[in-house]
């Protein structure tokens, strides 16, 4: 039987439907959350719904992600349940992403505008209240007690009304939050001051300025916090804004154009510029449709250039500022900008399948996944408000029944941090008709106990606990998205911080994957294995001894035709290199069918009715094909592809890969960070050693000849030794190892399965991004720890001080207004600290 060259049709793989039993994920926009206690309450309510497997609520971006059994949860009913319980919610199911995000942004802008109005009123009231102390007798009306009563009343009725209403409703629903604490503090201070005003003989002082200043500081802090949170989310919003709204659909029946011509001028009369078109929404484009894109416009969907030539700005996807030349046959991604020429493209991926949509989905998912370190804060937040109210009550009881009797001197005046009216000449121990506010040298035990209890209520800050992790993840993931580094969540960041070993795949990862053929060793001296005769020989173990003296300088077209026909059924850099060489030699492909790939070993196919194997020496041995030692030795430092049929070796092809330009620098940087760098490959030991030598890797750091399933076992072995391992790969063969690793890092230029398996996806084809992603993970996790330390430290120190622990020894009394100021700025400081990530991360 002879091999005959002929054209064979494109083989379409059979698609076997697989029942998807994966959990369904539903995302909600949730409003009304004021602190970590609210987020915890929303999570509890979601988990109570039948069919919900897990729920994760992000306070910073006001989003809830629910994992549920497929078809078991009505998203709209679940949103209605949250809304009825005081957290206005809506499902993102089936909505246009840009429209949903635009609606969310507009809602948040309205909230900020409303807060600014309330803050303006509160600041005016604070100024009027402060003028009474500054001007004194020069403006008698400003020191009038009824004037200050009016200011406090307005503060509660106007800017403070939403806080008080929400706080009371939350308490009624058994889900108290930060507003509950503020409302209790402000209303209690106002009520006590009214009692002092109406019953002056009790000897209490009026502190009407306390509710005014307390609410003003709280509103100022909330406004600054909202602004900071909006800045933190700006990267994701910019990414979503990349997605074009419109596409220009054309009927592409144009006369053929010269694809090798220069870019068309803007005044060109070519039909690339002037086809008949209609505009449609970009999310309605279907795969296979033809679209026209003019200079300055965004690419509407992922696709392939069919006519014209241009340069594309891909900086928002990859971080690369230099425009990339695109011509017929090149791929383009949605959201990138056409800079110079008009093109006609064919849509290949649309809607949620486009690159930018997948990036948005990854970043959104990352922002809702919590780091395990947050679990403690979540646990504390669930009971925080109840605990604070209990501490406030105990503070009141202690000082009223014991403290003022043990240390009577505390009733003689307030310390340096007291800013009550008594300390400022605004006590009210005389007749109300006097309207002037003399100094109070002594205060009631009941009033002192009440003020300390109020201070405890308003200094506690559950917001700082709730914002510590999500704001840092929000900023970190945003920085990563801008630089083409997609980190899937806070749990990944924590594992990145623990890494001590980085394992690289070789082919296509450390190397370019663009192999070149260097050796052709056909075996044809023995007449039984003449490539130009029928393949009808039996096993011949000594056939390889005939290679001595064979010249490898000339390309043997028959051997190349056979191996190219077999490799046509594979998706691997080796297959691509062999097919490219056959194409460059102008060799027609032989008829082939029944392809079978053995990952990590090779590929086989029926070529002209005979089974031909192409793969490594180990696979040849398993097929009963002998490979001489001297033949293997001649391929030292190269990748060898042995070709056999009927148990007889037909020949061998040698290929060589080149290192990526940044491979060595990346390895050195990782070592400088204290990480062990290793190489894992299915290639031969000699080929792996050649690459390792260029990277200065020792033999102990190289694992060669490892099959795909063996790669996962190799990683598991390292983990069993106590190593925290990251694996960097790009191919199907790497997927098991990526899944096994503590952190899988996938190159986006690689296969979809590698990208889906990885926890970090690198959009650029650059190994230095591995270094940058690990550095970003480390600094982001450190920022999380700083935020949590501040949040816990603030509450741990602030609550005892507010409860009066320093009062007997130092005379320091923290008034309710001062406590409110500290509380307001504690959450602002957490968000601001997260924003400093942008300054701290300059890799």
Describe it for me?
The protein is built from 28 helices and 26 strands. The strands form five sheets. A seven-stranded mixed β-sheet has the order 14-26-25-24-15-22-23, with helices on both faces. A six-stranded antiparallel β-sheet has the order 6-5-7-13-8-11, with no helix packed on it. Helix 14 (490-498) crosses helix 25. By secondary structure, the chain is of the alpha+beta class. Helices cover 45% and strands 16% of the residues.
Question: What is the fold's blueprint, element by element?
Answer:
Blueprint: E1 24-30, H1 36-47, E2 52-58, E3 63-68, H2 75-84, E4 89-91, H3 97-135, H4 145-157, H5 161-172, H6 178-198, H7 209-232, H8 234-241, E5 246-250, E6 277-281, E7 290-293, E8 302-307, E9 310-313, H9 315-318, E10 324-326, E11 331-332, E12 337-338, E13 343-349, H10 355-368, H11 374-406, H12 445-459, H13 462-482, E14 485-487, H14 490-498, E15 501-505, H15 506-510, E16 516-522, H16 557-567, H17 573-584, E17 592-598, E18 602-607, E19 610-615, H18 617-622, H19 629-633, E20 639-645, E21 648-656, H20 663-672, E22 676-680, H21 685-694, E23 702-703, H22 708-720, E24 725-729, H23 735-740, E25 743-747, H24 752-757, E26 760-762, H25 768-802, H26 807-810, H27 816-835, H28 837-840
Parallel strand pairs: 15-22, 15-24, 22-23, 24-25, 25-26
Antiparallel strand pairs: 1-3, 1-4, 2-3, 5-6, 5-7, 7-13, 8-11, 8-13, 9-10, 9-12, 14-26, 16-21, 17-18, 18-19, 19-20, 20-21
Helix pairs in contact: 1-11, 3-4, 3-7, 4-6, 4-7, 5-6, 6-7, 6-12, 7-27, 8-13, 10-13, 11-12, 11-13, 12-25, 12-27, 13-25, 13-27, 14-25, 16-17, 20-25, 25-27
